[in-house]
Design a protein that fits this description.
By secondary structure, the protein is mainly α. The protein is built from seven helices and three strands, in the order H-H-H-H-E-E-H-E-H-H. It has a domain of 37 residues. Strand 1 and strand 2 form a beta hairpin. Helix 2 crosses helix 3. It comes from Acetobacter ascendens.
């Protein structure tokens, strides 16, 4: 299992790299200056706003979840939702029930987007076969 990122900057950098994006492309897609995202990646931006992090995640198809006292938030669309962060529709699903579920989440986090789509298709096929 891949080691968990130790800093926010490391997590963002890994997510961007896993999608074969440069910091420049990721920043442009998020509507940010290239220097803004580079400051975040270097850890020199102090404390980036959650809104900014949500914009980076949303515009680059990076899963993003913020939890505050068991209330979860996910990236929203500014035009549609009026905010870059909206309440998660199923916050309770974000809480891991046991070690097996934690192992599944760990595997999921280690996969790239192509691997995730393939895994979902295989699992859905197994469920469909079982139901028939």
């Amino acid at each position: 299992m891949k080691k968990q990122a130790e800093t926010l900057a490391q997590a963002i950098e890994e997510a961007i790299q896993s999608r074969d994006l440069s910091a420049r492309v990721a920043s442009l897609k998020a509507g940010l200056s290239e220097s803004a995202i580079k400051h975040i990646l270097r850890g020199t931006s102090g404390s980036p706003k959650v809104d900014t992090l949500a914009r980076i995640a949303h515009s680059n198809n990076i899963p993003f979840f913020v939890s505050f006292d068991a209330h979860g938030f996910i990236p929203g669309d500014m035009e549609r939702d009026g905010s870059h962060l909206v309440p998660s529709p199923n916050t309770s699903a974000q809480i891991l029930d046991n070690a097996e579920e934690a192992a599944w989440v760990g595997l999921w986090r280690d996969m790239n987007e192509k691997q995730r789509r393939m895994a979902l298709a295989l699992i859905q096929a197994a469920i469909d076969t079982d139901a028939a």
